[in-house]
Structures are given as C-alpha cells and as structure tokens.
C-alpha cells in the first residue's frame, strides 16, 4: 500500500481531520499575527488581553443564547483540570456518572479518588454504546460527556426525569461545544476546552454555569469542609472571570484564536449554523459507510452517533493503520483511531472549521485507496 500514489486532484484542500487539536483556519492565524505586537507578551491584567477575554465570554454568551443568570467562566488548564474543580467545588457528597469511553471514565475515576466524597454511582456501557442516567435521590450531581471523543458516541443534554432542584447536571462538552445544538437550561455546568470546535490550542478550560451551580460552589467554599487550592477554586475563577481575566497568566494566543473562531461562527449563523454544518459533514461519512461493504459505523445506534467525531470500523482484511499512514504521507492527517480503543478503525473529526467539500474529497480519496487494494 505504501507504493500507492494518490492523485493530487482527489486530495482535500486541507488535510487536517484531527479530533483535537483540530484544524485552525488561516484567518485565525492571520488575526493572531496582526495583534502580536499589542496583545502577545503583555500583561493579562491590562486592557488589551482583558478585551480578548471579554470577546470570548460575550461571544460564547451569544453563541449559546445563554439565559439570564448563566455565566461564562474560564481558568487555567484544560477539561482535565475542570474534573478536579467539579469534584472539589460542585459535587457536594455523591455523584452519578455515565461512562461510555476513556474520557467519561476519567472523570468518574477522579471523583472516586476524592477523599471527601462518597463512592460515586457509575453506569457503564460498552464502547460504542450509550448509557442513560438513572434518577436517584442519593446523588447531588449527574455527570456525563455530551460527546465521547474516544468512541464517537453522542449523548443528549437533558436533565434526568425526576432530578431534584438541588441536583446539578455536569456536562463534559469538550468535543461537542460549538458544534452541536443544546439547551443550556438542561445543564448546570457545561464545560469544555478550546482545541476542538473552537479551533484553538489547549491550556484553558471554559464553563457555562447556571445560577444553581454558582450557588453550590459558593456554598461549598463558605462551608470550608475541605481544602480547595486557589488554582482549582471555582469561586476564584468566577471572581476573576467577571473581571475578564484569569487567576494566573493565561495562554493568550489560545484566547485570540478562540475569539476569532467564535466571532466567525456567530457571523455564519451561530450555533444553529454550526450544528447544521456538522450534521451535514458527518452525514456524508455515515452515508459513505453505508455504501462501502468494507466500512461500518462503529456506533450501531444512529441516534447515538456523533456529528463531530465519526468512528468507522474497517474490515479485518484491510490494514487501517497502513491506510492512515498512506494518507498521512500525502498530507491527510490525524484520522487514526483512539489509541486505547485498539480497533481497526478510522476516526474523522467534522468540526465546524471542516467544510463539506473537504469531507467529500476525503471520501473520494478513501474510495480510491479501497478500490486500488481490492
């Protein structure tokens, strides 16, 4: 397969299909370069950087159509850091977790290891399957991933049927935020990082918090029942975010790239536009899998299939690793499966920055490879 030469006319104009870090648009990079002398290398406590943070917070508020009282909060570290923040500042005693892959399992592990919390209730599903929450009185928080990046399973953002007023819903939206429509009133902490749909670098976490989540964090901080480091304090992050800043120096370039992406998405038509675009591009790939006998959608339930991270099984007699290596040598990159899943598979991101024509070109390229190897 290595000797196979792919016609340049087939290849996508941009061959980046990674599930994170994702492709960054050239216009974002140009905007970063244009502001290099006035923003980069300056104090994050001063107006130029605070203005960028304000653009991010205001832009997300518009993108998500946030209701009165919901706030955009940000801090240093990625979604991994927010798991610790949630365990310290949002879970009061016990939580319920839906686990359907690597990342939803990691948050459950963090909570299970927290010495001040009770053993969490964990509902597991096999990779590629979608678990459902079970309403119960003995938990004060429900947690799951809106999109499990490792497997391509997508879950609805919806409060469990009998959830009480003092039961928070914590949604890891890292690979879904900005690419999938949701109702913000159905979650209390909708948190994510910038390196997926927002086409930026990592190093930050962002969260949309409901009034109930803010009250919970303030109550836990006031009670002082356990030590909360400043860098993991949600109330500290909230206090700083309201000033359009972070506790410590943030990744300023990341903020600039993200602000540009959010404003671009809002100009296109906001979250409704982004949702329609990712449905279209992912739909092209699922339809292709239906046409090719060598390719099968890993997530068997169409209702649970991700519209931003498409996972496709490849028939056993075809070496998917050799296929992805061939495409990589031609500039089509990061379509390998999640390493720990260990499947003969392709994993293709269809975030808003990925246009339909590039997905169509990728499909044509893959068709050429499959036809050539028989």
From TrEMBL:
<keyword id="KW-0718">Serine biosynthesis</keyword>
<dbReference type="InterPro" id="IPR006272">
    <property type="entry name" value="Pser_aminoTfrase_mycobac"/>
</dbReference>
<protein>
    <recommendedName>
        <fullName>phosphoserine transaminase</fullName>
        <ecNumber>2.6.1.52</ecNumber>
    </recommendedName>
</protein>
<dbReference type="GO" id="GO:0004648">
    <property type="term" value="F:O-phospho-L-serine:2-oxoglutarate aminotransferase activity"/>
</dbReference>
<dbReference type="GO" id="GO:0008615">
    <property type="term" value="P:pyridoxine biosynthetic process"/>
</dbReference>
<dbReference type="InterPro" id="IPR022278">
    <property type="entry name" value="Pser_aminoTfrase"/>
</dbReference>
<dbReference type="InterPro" id="IPR000192">
    <property type="entry name" value="Aminotrans_V_dom"/>
</dbReference>
<dbReference type="InterPro" id="IPR015422">
    <property type="entry name" value="PyrdxlP-dep_Trfase_small"/>
</dbReference>
<feature type="domain" description="Aminotransferase class V">
    <location>
        <begin position="136"/>
        <end position="332"/>
    </location>
</feature>
<dbReference type="GO" id="GO:0004760">
    <property type="term" value="F:L-serine-pyruvate transaminase activity"/>
</dbReference>
<dbReference type="GO" id="GO:0006564">
    <property type="term" value="P:L-serine biosynthetic process"/>
</dbReference>
<comment type="pathway">
    <text>Amino-acid biosynthesis; L-serine biosynthesis; L-serine from 3-phospho-D-glycerate: step 2/3.</text>
</comment>
<keyword id="KW-0963">Cytoplasm</keyword>
<keyword id="KW-0032">Aminotransferase</keyword>
<dbReference type="InterPro" id="IPR015424">
    <property type="entry name" value="PyrdxlP-dep_Trfase"/>
</dbReference>
<comment type="similarity">
    <text>Belongs to the class-V pyridoxal-phosphate-dependent aminotransferase family. SerC subfamily.</text>
</comment>
<dbReference type="InterPro" id="IPR015421">
    <property type="entry name" value="PyrdxlP-dep_Trfase_major"/>
</dbReference>
<dbReference type="GO" id="GO:0019265">
    <property type="term" value="P:glycine biosynthetic process, by transamination of glyoxylate"/>
</dbReference>
<keyword id="KW-0028">Amino-acid biosynthesis</keyword>
<dbReference type="GO" id="GO:0008453">
    <property type="term" value="F:alanine-glyoxylate transaminase activity"/>
</dbReference>
<dbReference type="Pfam" id="PF00266">
    <property type="entry name" value="Aminotran_5"/>
</dbReference>
<keyword id="KW-0663">Pyridoxal phosphate</keyword>
<keyword id="KW-0808">Transferase</keyword>
<keyword id="KW-0664">Pyridoxine biosynthesis</keyword>
<comment type="function">
    <text>Catalyzes the reversible conversion of 3-phosphohydroxypyruvate to phosphoserine and of 3-hydroxy-2-oxo-4-phosphonooxybutanoate to phosphohydroxythreonine.</text>
</comment>
